[in-house]
């Protein structure tokens, strides 16, 4: 089966065609950084309007690139939340329109499920259940991924998400948005032990995260004028990594899994990838992380989540009155189809 995926939950507009054999037939992502950068962050209405402009052409483009027509597609998967709801509505409604016009099923995908299953698109050997560190712009969670639609949340952040912390550190250092890649680049030239920064929650018996205190400490370090920016960046990144490793170690003890997986935009960070791979090795777990482009927002992961749900049981499609959701926790959607996936 071939699934068209649509993504529009934040500031990336994306479309992709993925098939059941994990072939990415075509895909395209258009970022909106230039439209939002004058405001120092994503402006929801500007994002929604940009999706309206960009998405129809992207759909045309991915079909053309794969030399296909909409009639050749088996189902249309669109992000239905969580995210900036105006943008979600644009992609979801585009998906509904295409599904209706072509007479194909709609698959309303949870964006977090897209991130959570993305490692299985890149790694055919990755079986359920696995422990997932989901570290993105809006979330920082540890989840036991037991199957498609079957998630047990072990931990979450009590304040900021990890990607948000990278973006705020970048802002304090005068780097652009999105901050993650810019902080990583600067950190490569700095010393990770130069600036004393806290590791919130380390030592706690429950694997939750907290990054607000780290953000304030970075702010104070920058304001003090005592440190080089590259040393602040490197020390900040190391603090986040130390939190990831410590918290994930606790979760490994609580979860019954054979693999450790990291996904979401922050998983594009090389230091994060290396440290968690090492942790997995120490605990005798297999390790999997998608390529960087599949960690940050894209539509291939949405199409893939569609493939997994399409393949699981007697999937008939989601109703065309499915709502766009600003909030949609991964572990509480009882209305999801459960199954083993591909
Ligand atoms: P969510 O998925 O929670 O709804 P989102 O879709 O906005 O949020 P993603 O696209 O998954 O988030 O990830 C974007 C985040 O990842 C940003 O905060 C960005 O700074 C961070 N990020 C991207 N690349 C890197 C990197 N190389 N190092 C660290 N952080 C990174
Ligand atoms: Fe995301």
Automatic annotation (TrEMBL):
Domain Gcp-like: 23-304
UniProt KW Glycoprotein keyword: no
MF terms (GO), sorted A to Z: tRNA N(6)-L-threonylcarbamoyladenine synthase activity
A Pfam family it matches: TsaD
Keyword annotations of the record: Acyltransferase, Cytoplasm, Iron, Metal-binding, Transferase, tRNA processing
InterPro entries: Gcp-like_dom, KAE1/TsaD, TsaD
Catalytic activity, EC: 2.3.1.234
Cofactor dependency: Fe(2+)
Protein's cellular compartments: Cytoplasm
Family statement: Belongs to the KAE1 / TsaD family.
Protein's UniProt name: tRNA N6-adenosine threonylcarbamoyltransferase
Organism of this sequence: Sphingomicrobium clamense
Lineage, opening ranks: Bacteria, Pseudomonadati, Pseudomonadota, Alphaproteobacteria, Sphingomonadales
This protein's encoding gene: tsaD
């Amino acid at each position: 089966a071939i699934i068209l995926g649509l993504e529009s939950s934040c500031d990336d507009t994306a479309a992709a065609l993925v098939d059941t054999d994990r072939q990415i037939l075509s895909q395209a992502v258009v970022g909106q950084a230039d439209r939002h950068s004058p405001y120092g962050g994503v402006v929801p209405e500007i994002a929604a309007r940009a999706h309206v402009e960009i998405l129809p052409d992207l759909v045309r483009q991915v079909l053309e690139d794969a030399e296909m027509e909409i009639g050749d597609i088996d189902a249309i998967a669109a992000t239905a939340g969580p995210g900036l709801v105006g943008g979600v509505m644009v992609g979801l409604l585009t998906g509904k329109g295409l599904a209706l016009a072509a007479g194909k099923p709609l698959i309303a995908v949870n964006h977090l499920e897209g991130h959570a299953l993305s490692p299985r698109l890149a790694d055919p050997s990755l079986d359920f259940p696995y422990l997932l560190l989901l570290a993105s712009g809006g979330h920082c969670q540890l989840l036991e991924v037991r199957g498609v639609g079957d998630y047990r949340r072990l931990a979450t952040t009590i304040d900021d998400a990890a990607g948000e912390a990278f973006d705020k550190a970048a802002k304090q250092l005068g780097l652009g948005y999105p901050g993650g890649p810019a902080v990583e680049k600067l950190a490569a030239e700095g010393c990770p032990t130069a600036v004393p920064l806290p590791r919130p929650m380390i030592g706690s018996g429950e694997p939750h995260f907290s990054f607000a205190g780290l953000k304030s400490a970075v702010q104070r370090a920058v304001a003090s004028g005592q440190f080089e920016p590259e040393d602040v960046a490197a020390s900040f990144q190391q603090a986040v990594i130390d939190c990831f490793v410590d918290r994930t170690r606790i979760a490994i003890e609580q979860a019954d899994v054979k693999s450790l997986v990291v996904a979401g935009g922050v998983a594009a960070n090389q230091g994060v990838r290396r440290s968690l791979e090492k942790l997995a090795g120490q605990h005798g777990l297999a390790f999997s992380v998608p390529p960087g482009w599949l960690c940050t927002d894209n539509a291939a992961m949405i199409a893939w989540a569609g493939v997994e749900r399409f393949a699981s049981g007697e999937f008939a499609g989601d109703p065309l009155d499915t709502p766009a959701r600003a909030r949609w926790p991964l572990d509480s959607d009882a209305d999801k189809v459960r199954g083993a996936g591909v």
